[in-house]
């Protein structure tokens, strides 16, 4: 655990030394909130609508942090000469993986916090402490498919391939998952497809955490299924990379 904390500290400091990287990760979801939710009086002036919109932006912040930190971040790390040396150490890959996960969770909280602070100040969103207490574990659980998906991208691609792939995954999944437009506006076929996506599942659980709505069993099942699938892909990508570079 000590090694994992040290790895997390190292990764955090490395990113913090590049202000544009830290600022983009933290500010981008808040900018979306300020541009698309706050000026829209039909949403901002409706407590339920503003709260649901906040949950949607929060899920996007989680996905953005995971795909960039774990996808692009891992690809960048693999390109450095330091990475092969670390893999030869007797500690094994688990401390490094755990450290990157801890670092990712830290950036998730940094990205989500401004959105949660802006929402009650500039809209009619209601986020009581009890809802926040439930929302935090829901956010962490919902981040798992994107976390492992980021690992799969980072360990299977170069930096040049990881960045466009992460973006190509992020924006279509965000749209189809109801993070930019409410699923109620979707045509029937898109709504059906949307229900099996991890973004839609994360949105449904996020809305359940902050608004009085029934728990979606389909969302929980979809999130668990995507978590298992992306975990398998991440393990495969890591072993494939290790086999190619160190045999």
UniProtKB/TrEMBL annotation:
Main localization category: membrane
Boundaries of every ABC-2 type transporter transmembrane domain copy: 14-204
Localization, UniProt: Membrane
GO process terms (BP): response to antibiotic
Transmembrane regions listed in the UniProt entry: 20-38, 104-122, 134-155, 162-181, 215-238
GO molecular function: ABC-type transporter activity
Assigned keywords, A-Z: Antibiotic resistance, Membrane, Transmembrane, Transmembrane helix
Domain of life: Bacteria
GO cellular component: ATP-binding cassette (ABC) transporter complex
Pfam families linked: ABC2_membrane
Membrane topology label: Multi-pass membrane protein
The protein's name: ABC-2 type transport system permease protein
Organism: Lipingzhangella halophila
Taxonomic placement: Bacteria, Bacillati, Actinomycetota, Actinomycetes, Streptosporangiales
């Amino acid at each position: 655990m000590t090694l994992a904390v040290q790895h997390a500290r190292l990764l955090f400091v490395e990113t913090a030394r590049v202000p544009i990287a830290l600022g983009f990760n933290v500010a981008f979801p808040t900018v979306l909130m300020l541009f698309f939710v706050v000026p829209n009086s039909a949403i901002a002036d409706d407590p339920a609508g503003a709260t649901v919109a906040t949950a949607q932006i929060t899920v996007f912040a989680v996905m953005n942090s995971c795909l960039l930190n774990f996808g692009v971040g891992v690809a960048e790390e693999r390109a450095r000469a330091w990475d092969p040396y670390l893999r030869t150490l007797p500690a094994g890959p688990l401390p490094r993986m755990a450290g990157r996960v801890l670092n990712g969770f830290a950036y998730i909280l940094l990205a989500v916090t401004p959105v949660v602070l802006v929402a009650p100040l500039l809209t009619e969103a209601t986020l009581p402490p009890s809802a926040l207490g439930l929302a935090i574990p829901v956010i962490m659980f919902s981040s798992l498919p994107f976390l492992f998906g980021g690992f799969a991208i980072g360990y299977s691609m170069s930096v040049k391939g990881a960045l466009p792939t992460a973006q190509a995954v992020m924006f279509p999944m965000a749209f189809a998952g109801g993070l930019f437009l409410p699923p109620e506006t979707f045509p029937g076929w898109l709504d059906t497809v949307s229900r099996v996506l991890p973004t839609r599942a994360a949105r449904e659980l996020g809305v359940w955490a902050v608004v009085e709505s029934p728990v979606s069993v389909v969302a929980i099942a979809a999130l668990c299924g995507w978590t298992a699938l992306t975990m398998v892909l991440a393990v495969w990508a890591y072993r494939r990379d290790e086999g190619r570079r160190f045999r």
